[in-house]
Specification:
By secondary structure, the chain is mainly alpha-helical. A two-stranded antiparallel ribbon has the order 1-2. A two-stranded antiparallel ribbon has the order 3-4. The longest helix is centred in the C-terminal third of the chain and has 34 residues. The C terminus is likely disordered.
Length: 446
């Protein structure tokens, strides 16, 4: 499925200027849609606005409960107050327990507006990062709009690296389709404005792999170090969607080693597969040490006890019907602009019809990549079905990356193949009326 290039073209594509220029153009385009033009922060139909366990997640507020964990942490920095913990986030709100770890805290006295409590369920590196930016930039409490714009810009930068790789592999039209999906995908739009999710950290390992794949050199040790660092940053910002993050980073090497059957790419496959568990283990060690210093107890034991918080069995305890949740998933917008979009079920049916109609033009390589992208996005739903059913809106991210990006590019590649085959067939077919002017066979033995 990769375009054939001559050695001269390979040398040209090695020039970093060509990559940087295209990445800059893609970054600017994506940022315009994810930042200034992203008016509706929810972009979901009204059926989901009043989700029973998230009453404060109104129509214009995506995942407000999670977002307040980061804004609560940032508030310490904007007020110039020392934060009593290392990587933990801060649950801000009037119903939260007042901070017992702050010296001289008295009843009615709070170190934050309306008090709060520490959030211990997972590490929160993103809170530390955004609090540092807020403190260095002199932000005022509650004025975090420019932080969300910066978050959208970083997300656009990571996506641009992936799209440059798609252009390098499949051509301009396929990259343009992926770029259009990146601009309009509901999951990318709503997640890119969330400081809690900081999805650029989720995209960072995939972007690193894509840039290494375009280098045309096998550097597994350097790739391992870069990916371990990228995975570690993601793990220290939370473990959600970690299977999707890992399989997305493996995509360029899967395409090279399995699809293209390039033996030299297998060292990069091994490096990628080793980087994630190493980074995951390092993150647990770091978090355990900091957790013990803050609370004097085991982080592993606490995380294990919290492991079943989002199980399928817990759905019935809060009177949520799993079938209702599945129905909500199908009705959410897969792609939209300012809240006007297409439901996920319609996009899925259209994609299935497209594959059926062009199945004769889809070769082994395309089927492998279609299947891999779908499996990568579905991996988190397989590992944590309760988490997905509790929070149907999270499916929008799983649909968007890597599945949506890869499907949009491959759809164009398959259509181009069908068009080229039709043009060749037309060129080889005899024109109408040619049988009336067939030359008379010669009887000359010479």
């Amino acid at each position: 499925m990769s375009r054939h290039r001559t050695p001269e073209q390979h040398r040209f594509m090695k020039l970093p200027v060509s990559h940087v220029r295209l990445a800059a153009l893609c970054t600017l385009t994506l940022y315009l849609f994810l930042g200034p033009l992203n008016f509706a922060s929810n972009a979901m139909p009204l059926i989901y606005a009043n989700y029973p366990t998230y009453q404060n997640n109104g129509k214009q507020h995506f995942d407000e409960n999670s977002e307040r964990l980061v804004t609560g942490r940032i508030a310490f920095a904007t007020r110039g107050e020392p934060y009593p913990h290392a990587l933990q986030l801060w649950r801000q709100g009037t119903d939260a327990t007042p901070p017992s770890t702050i010296a001289d805290a008295e009843p009615g006295q709070t170190s934050l507006a309306s008090g709060g409590s520490v959030y211990r369920s997972q590490p929160g590196l993103q809170g530390l990062l955004w609090a540092t930016v807020a403190r260095c930039s002199g932000a005022t409490e509650g004025s975090y709009g420019y932080l969300r714009q910066l978050n959208a810009l970083l997300t656009a930068l990571m996506l641009a690296g992936v799209i440059v790789w798609m252009r390098f592999r499949w051509g301009d039209a396929a990259a343009a389709a992926a770029l259009l999906w990146g601009c309009l995908a509901t999951g990318i739009n709503i997640f890119s404005n969330s400081l809690y999710w900081s999805v650029w950290l989720m995209l960072l390992p995939m972007a690193v792999s894509c840039w290494f794949a375009m280098a045309h050199r096998s550097r597994p040790v350097l790739l391992f170090i870069a990916l371990t660092t990228a995975f570690l940053l993601k793990c220290l910002a939370g473990y959600e969607f970690i299977s999707v993050v890992g399989l997305s980073a493996l995509l360029p090497w899967f395409a090279a080693a399995v699809v293209d059957r390039d033996r030299t790419a297998w060292s990069s496959v091994v490096a990628t597969c080793l980087a994630l568990p190493v980074a995951f283990a390092l993150s647990l060690v770091i978090y355990a040490q900091l957790f013990a210093a803050d609370f004097g107890s085991s982080a592993i034991a606490y995380l294990t006890s919290r492991g079943g918080a989002w199980s399928v069995e817990q759905l019935t305890d809060v009177a949520i019907n799993p079938l209702d949740q599945v129905a909500k998933i199908g009705l959410l917008h897969a792609a939209d602009f300012n809240g006007i979009g297409v439901p996920l079920v319609a996009v899925a049916l259209a994609q299935a019809a497209y594959l059926m109609a062009l199945r004769r033009d889809i070769d082994r390589a395309a089927w492998l990549l279609y299947g891999y992208a779908l499996a990568a996005s579905a991996s988190w739903a397989v590992l944590q079905p309760g988490h997905v059913l509790f929070h149907p809106r999270y499916v929008l991210w799983l649909v968007s990356v890597p599945c949506g990006l890869v499907f949009s590019a491959l759809n164009v590649v398959v259509w181009q193949r069908r068009r080229d085959r039709h043009l060749r067939r037309t060129a080889l077919a005899p024109s109408r009326g040619d049988h009336h002017h067939q030359p008379t066979p010669s009887t000359d033995p010479g």
